[in-house]
Design brief:
With 195 residues, this protein is of the alpha+beta class. The protein has a single domain, classed as Nucleoside Triphosphate Pyrophosphohydrolase. Helices cover 21% and strands 35% of the residues. Strands 1, 2, 3, 4, 5, 6, 7, 8 and 9 form a 9-stranded mixed sheet that branches. Strands 10-11 form a two-stranded antiparallel sheet. A hairpin with a 4-residue loop joins strand 7 and strand 8.
Length: 195
Amino acid sequence: MPEALRRALESGGAASSDHDLDPGMVLPPERRLRAAAVLVPVWQREGGAQVILTKRASHLAHHPGQIAFPGGKIDPEDASAEAAALREAREEIGLPETQVHLIGRLPSHETVTGYTVVPVLAQVHGDFVPVLQEAEVEEAFTVPLSHVLDLARYRVERRLWRGGWRSYYVVPYGPYYIWGATARILRGFAERMQP
């Protein structure tokens, strides 16, 4: 499977943004973006490849209850975006680094909340039982890779945000409403995986 996943890296592509679907939005030129990294973990299971996602705890001040990749800001002690993504996955869901094979970086993604996120594509090996950091993560679950690679499953929705309409991708799966930056990163991944 790593060979198939490498296709997503080899096809290139530009960085993405939460603003992609709103070309008329004017961003302040002096905005300062903070560095973050997420792990895009593809886990080969008996029934097929799965992507591991999390549901953020509902009591959090920022993005409560939203679906996300394991990840977060890059700390000064992190040697790289990859190191930050691995550390966050270990802290949030107990994923051991020894079970993770890093494939490479997908193009970065800018969020409306002021982060430049580096998505790190990886393959997870062997059995794994998530151990949740309950202060931040309410649930860890998987979505079939085939679901998120199917471009027909994505749609564009919009909502009022700071006095204007903001459009964004969604790719629902069962009870999970996957939207925003997570859906946009998955959509970019899916586009790069097309034959």
